[in-house]
Write a structure and sequence with these properties.
Layout (H helix, E strand, L loop, with lengths): L1 H16 L5 E7 L5 E10 L4 E2 L8 H21 L1
Antiparallel strand pairs: 1-2, 2-3
């Protein structure tokens, strides 16, 4: 898992460096239950607060996007 996880973390770090995403926290568990967590970027870009493994996310923003996307896709399948 470590090799696969390092590929994921490298991709995340590169995406943050190229400013494709502001930040990310990714985690995985091996079959023997060894957890791995990696954080990259900033939790608050304007204040330059670094993302940490235990950063708490505001899910209200995420639920708005998820609900809107679902509604738009449903309407598109009905009309298209």
């Amino acid at each position: 898992m470590k090799n696969k996880f390092s590929k994921v973390t490298s991709f995340i770090d590169q995406s943050v460096q190229e400013q494709q995403i502001p930040s990310a926290v990714v985690g995985g568990v091996t079959p023997n239950a060894m957890p791995s967590i990696h954080s990259s970027g900033f939790a608050h870009t304007q204040k330059r607060i670094k993302m940490k493994d235990d950063t708490i996310f505001d899910l209200a923003s995420l639920t708005q996007v998820a609900a809107t996307l679902h509604t738009i896709l449903t309407l598109l399948t009905r009309t298209g």
